[in-house]
Amino acid sequence: MDNHMEEKMSVEQLINLLTTFTKEATDTVEKFLASDLVQDTTTMTTELGKTLSDAVKGLKILKSVASIPSKLYLRKFERFCRDLTAIPLEKRQKYLKSLGREKFNNESIFILNVINRIEEEDKLPLLIKLLDARMEGIISSDEYRRLTILVDRTLYEDLLYLEYNVTANPVALHTDSDYGLVASGLLVTVGNEWIGDFTNEDDPNDTGIRFNYTSSAKKLARILFGVHCNSTPTNTGIAKMQAISEERIKRILESC
């Protein structure tokens, strides 16, 4: 078997495992996944059912023969499968049925790639919250993918920063998380605020440039942390520049 076929088989195995956990996993599966010991097959089958029991055993076998990089990936994959149980089983089954096998496989490949890129395991429960919102119809398929990618490329600490700092008002950049959110595309330039004479309380490093939280940032705050923010920016204090024609400039000068 060539390397390409081995890779293909591995992806197919992971998709099948993810399908089984999505369709059948309950809280009971956590104790079997959490243990590195090989559990009694009869006990596991009795508590989980044959299909889910076989999936747990299959995942453990993959972990036992995997290389170190693959073990690290499977550790994240297993965490994601465990966290799936935070979504009610009936909702997961309904979602799986509504998508159909082909669409679910495509979505599985997407999430498997995201899991591969994610370096902070604490982000995995956040992915589950986005998936739950997708299943609820709160966000579309495109929004789900877009927000998932944003979670992937944003530091975990910066995502937590959203919970207490997201706002509809323009903000100045003060903290590392502010700059991190700009780099992730969750804060964008909106304009300049006029700055008068500095007082002792003013920041001498303030350039006057202001930023708005994007609609995606506000959606993440709502879905991940339950924080609701006005979707329309207030643009309070932002100075608007307007071009003046040469003719108007001439009239202004003549009137002086």
SSE diagram, text form:
Layout: H1 3-24, H2 29-34, H3 41-48, H4 50-65, H5 68-83, H6 89-117, H7 124-136, H8 141-153, H9 156-165, H10 176-184, E1 187-193, E2 209-213, H11 215-225, E3 238-239, H12 246-255
Task: Describe the structure concisely.
By secondary structure, this protein is mainly α. Helix content is 64%, strand content 5%.
Task: Explain the overall architecture.
- Helix content is 64%, strand content 5%.
- It contains twelve helices and three strands, in the order ααααααααααββαβα.
- The chain has helices spanning 3-24, 29-34, 41-48, 50-65, 68-83, 89-117, 124-136, 141-153, 156-165, 176-184, 215-225, 246-255, and strands at residues 187-193, 209-213, 238-239.
- Strands 2-1-3 form a three-stranded antiparallel sheet.
- Mean pLDDT is 83; it is low at 1-9.
Number of strands: 3
Average pLDDT, rounded to a whole number, is 83
Beta-strand share of residues: 5-15%
Oligomeric status: single chain
Give me some keywords for this one.
disordered N terminus, 256 residues, 3-stranded antiparallel beta sheet, 3 strands
